[in-house]
Every structure is written in C-alpha cells, then in structure tokens.
Design brief:
With about 500 residues, the protein is an alpha+beta fold. Among the domains are: about 40-200 and about 470-495, Serine Threonine Protein Phosphatase 5, Tetratricopeptide repeat; about 290-370, no CATH class. The chain has helices at about 40-50, 70-75, 90-95, 105-125, 135-160, 185-200, 215-230, 235-250, 290-295, 315-320, 365, 380-395, 400-415, 425-435, 445-450, 485-490, and strands at about 80, 275-280, 315, 335-340, 345-355, 375-380, 395-400, 425, 450-455, 460-465. The protein has a two-stranded antiparallel sheet with strand order 1-3. A two-stranded antiparallel sheet has the order 2-6.
Length: about 500
C-alpha cells in the first residue's frame, strides 16, 4: 500500500510551553501509556505515529506559498522566490541577512526535532517492556523507531549545531529544561541508534514506505560522510565508513537508477527502484503542496490551482550553469520554461524563467489535489556519496572501480554519450551532486559538511567561506552556517541561550 497511517502515538507528551504570568495552574499529571501497549495493532499505531514528524517541516503558513520547508533551499543562494512571502521572514534566508531568532520559520524546524523525538523516546521505552509480540517483530518495530530518532536528531544537529540530547520519555517536570549537548555527542547518539536499527532484521526494501535496511545503511553513509567533514572533521576513518556503507547499499542490488528522469514523477514507481526512503503522501488525507507552491504567478494560467505559486524557483545563473546537452536541463526533465495553457492546449504559455519540474504531479492537474510522495533518500545520492568518500580516502582523486562506476551511473544518465573516466576528482563528484540533487533539500547540507560550493561564474567548486551567492547580500561567513535557536524556545528554556 502507498500510505502509512501517520497516527500520533499515545506516547507523545506535549513539551512544556512558556505560560504567561496570569496562568497560575500547575499541571497535575501526565498521560500514561500503561494501558495502551497491549495488542500488536496498538504497537503498530504507536510506531506509525513516530513517522509523523517527517511531515512537520511541510507545514503551510499564512500567506502565499509560505512554508518553513523552503528555508534550506533559500540559504544556498541558488534559488529565488517569485513573489513576496510573509514580510521579511523569507528574505532573511534568501539574502543571507541577519536571521532574527523571532523569525517564524525557525520554530517549525525546532519542533520538527523535539516533538517527534519525544514520541520516539516514548515508543522505544514502552516497546522495550513489551513481551507479547511475535519473535523478531519487537526488534523490527524498535529498529524503525531507532532510525526515525536518528533522522530527527541528524536534521537538528546540522541546522542548529549544539542542541539538547534526550533519549528517555518525559514523565514529570524535572527533565523539561535540558542544556545543549556538544555536536559530537549528538552524532554519537545518531550512530548508536542507526547501528541498533541496522541489527533489527528489517527488509532491504519496503513498498509500504516504512523504514528498510536500505534506508538505514544509506542514512549511515550520509551521517559518516558528514562526520568526516565539517564541523567534526574526523577525516579518513569516517570517509571509509561512509564508503563501505554506501557500497553495501550498491552491492545489495536492491536499488537502481530509473532509466528516465520522468520516472521520478511516476506515482506507480514510488517506494521502488531509485527511491530508498520517502515521505508518504495522499491527495485526500495528507496532500503534498509542493506541486502547486512551485507554480508561477496566477496571471499565467497553466494550472488548475494557480493561486498559491511563487515559492521557489532556480536562479537563472544556476540554471545556466547546467551544460546545454545535460539531459537534466532539457524541457520537462528537472525544469521547464513553457507550458500549455490550462484548459486551452492550443496556447503555449512562456514562463518568466525556468521553473522546477521535479515535483510536477500530472494527477494533481486533473483533481486539484496533489498526493505524490516526497523523496528523502534517493539511490543517486548514495552513488555519489560512495564516489565522494572514496575520492577523499585516496587523497582527492580515485581510480577505485566501485567509486568510478557509482559516479558514472549518475553521469551517464545525464550525458548518455559520456565515456567512463579512468579517475575522478572529489570536486567533480561534488559538482555532480549540485546538479543531480538540486532542489531536493540536500544542497545546503552538502555545503555545510564540505565547506565547498559551486561558483556559477566559472562552474568550478570553491571554498564556501568568502563566496557570495547570486541572491545573497554578502559572502558566506562562519556565523552564517547555523540557524539561531528560536526565541520562543530560549524563553521557555534559558539553558538554550
């Protein structure tokens, strides 16, 4: 089946919020799970509830196509917003301006860590004391949740740096104000959780969209290569770990690149082939707004729902950085520059510039409701991680057969006539990641861990610090690389200052 029932687990405890002084009531108790974990259907509901946090960043704001989800893409400096959003909230990220801790886009990213983590902690605590499940089932359920807790913390530590670390459920008011933990400690916990998930006996793939062994090992590769780079700079030992995990995914033969870029938009192929881990969407119960939010202005009638567009588009300089014969640049591959008028196919509408086509949903244009899944882990990503890790291990370039083949699989799909290289340089791989994974919520994290970026003037990789991206007011500095903790959270917990 396509959709996971993302019910909120009974273990979820709402974290304490800052109360104004006139609210004097003291809490007199907490919800208890003692009577809940008594059947496997209840366990399944609780585990499914742990997935709910994957969707939290896709909340929609008041205004035209506003959502915290777009923050990492704005920060890269290679994307633009076609029309104003909610005051200055988006511009602070688009311009690399001072980011006000009171900016309303920060809070959803913070709560997308800690509400889901609290849920995961509760589920793991209760599952560890469950004795009625069939052999192996308890371990697999816990493996899913260990992966999810690692996912949420990995998202948080990359964006905010030092953050609180909590691995037990909240049962009273004594452990609601927690100080920040060093990033290395957060990463150690992420790895520990993923290693637990790796030993849980999960299948390599899961057509329903639940966590699979492929997802666990792919995320481990991504975590290890991040630890090898900035800010921890653990170097070759961790590049080797990343290479080995990525190679395990490749050698499993469980995943393969789709032959055509259009396959990435086929609903029938979701949770198969190139897709390793996806956020499950449904047009009725859990829609995906991205299709409509990437539309042009409503004055250009190309959609059944043109009103909400204008949230995200490639900067023209980034679009022009693609080679002319790159298949990803061809019309209706990753981008499009024109479209038939909605309900009048005799009229071709020229767009104000290239727009993102990766999330075009044909069915949504018939029904007005988008239900395409959103891909979080894709096989092309793992292939390039493998090549990048090996090139770093070998001093910046490699002739390793596995690494070259991994890189060439991605490269050949974009350039069918390309010959397989005898060696590859790490900068070639990083540049390929910019083009292949653009607007998939990956680029900002690559920039953070490598401290490298794509110079659009000459198409070469350069140091991130000191580079001024097209949409930014200034060059990148170290102080631009972490988001501030939301002011509302600091007010609730002064230890976060």
């Amino acid at each position: 089946m396509k959709q996971i029932a993302y019910s909120v687990g009974w273990g979820m405890i709402l974290l304490c919020s800052a109360c104004t002084r006139f609210l004097k009531e003291e809490p007199d108790g907490f919800l208890t799970t003692d009577k809940y974990y008594t059947t496997e259907s209840q366990v399944k509901a609780a585990v499914n509830g742990a997935y709910a946090g994957l969707d939290d960043i896709f909340a929609t704001g008041i205004g035209v196509a506003t959502s915290p989800a777009f923050v990492p893409e704005y920060l890269t400096g290679y994307s633009t917003r076609l029309r104003p959003g909610d005051g200055d909230a988006e511009n602070q990220f688009l311009r690399l301006d001072y980011i006000d801790p009171a900016n309303g886009r920060l809070e959803p990213w913070w709560t997308a860590i800690y509400y889901p983590v609290e849920n995961c902690n509760s589920v793991l605590d209760n599952l560890s004391r469950t004795s009625f499940l069939p052999a192996g089932a308890q371990k697999q359920y816990m493996g899913e949740v260990y992966f999810l807790r690692a996912w949420y913390y990995f998202q948080g530590v990359r964006l905010f740096g030092d953050i609180p670390l909590k691995t037990t459920p909240t049962t009273d008011l004594s452990n609601t104000r927690i100080p920040k933990a060093p990033q290395e400690k957060i990463y150690d916990q992420i790895v520990a959780d993923l290693l637990m998930a790796e030993q849980a006996g999960l299948p390599w793939t899961d057509i329903s969209g639940h966590v699979s062994q492929g997802a666990v090992k792919s995320l481990l590769a991504k975590v290890y290569i991040t630890m090898a780079g900035y800010p921890l700079q653990k170097g070759n030992d961790y590049y080797r770990k990343a290479y080995e995990k990525a190679k395990e995914v490749i050698d499993s033969k469980a995943f393969a690149l789709f032959p055509r870029y259009s396959d990435l938009r086929q609903a029938s192929l979701q949770n198969t082939g190139e897709f390793i881990f996806m956020l499950q969407r449904d047009p009725v119960n859990a829609g995906n707004f991205i299709h409509f939010y990437l539309m042009p202005f409503p004055e250009l009638p190309i959609s059944i729902q043109p009103t909400y567009g204008g949230a995200l588009a490639p900067h023209i300089a980034f679009y022009n950085a693609f080679a002319a014969n790159d298949q990803r640049k061809q019309e209706q591959a990753f981008f499009y520059t024109r479209s038939l008028q909605y309900n009048d196919p005799s009229n071709m509408v020229n767009l104000p510039g290239p727009l993102i086509y990766k999330y075009w949903d044909d069915e949504a244009e018939k029904t007005g409701k988008a239900g395409q899944n959103f891909c979080y882990l894709r096989f092309a990503d793992v292939l390039l991680l493998c090549a990048e890790a090996r090139a770093n291990i070998d001093g910046g370039s490699t002739s390793d057969a596995t690494a070259i083949d991994a890189y060439y699989q991605v490269r050949r799909r974009a350039f069918p006539a390309a010959s397989k290289p005898a060696a590859i340089h790490v900068d070639e791989v990083l540049k390929e990641r910019f083009f292949e994974l653009c607007f998939e919520w990956q680029t900002w994290y690559d920039m953070l861990r490598t401290r490298r970026t794509l110079n659009l003037a000459d198409g070469q990789m350069v140091n991130l610090i000191g580079y001024k991206a097209p949409t930014h007011l200034k060059a990148f500095a170290e102080t631009d690389l972490l988001l501030p903790v939301p002011l509302s959270e600091v007010q609730k917990n002064p230890l976060l200052k």
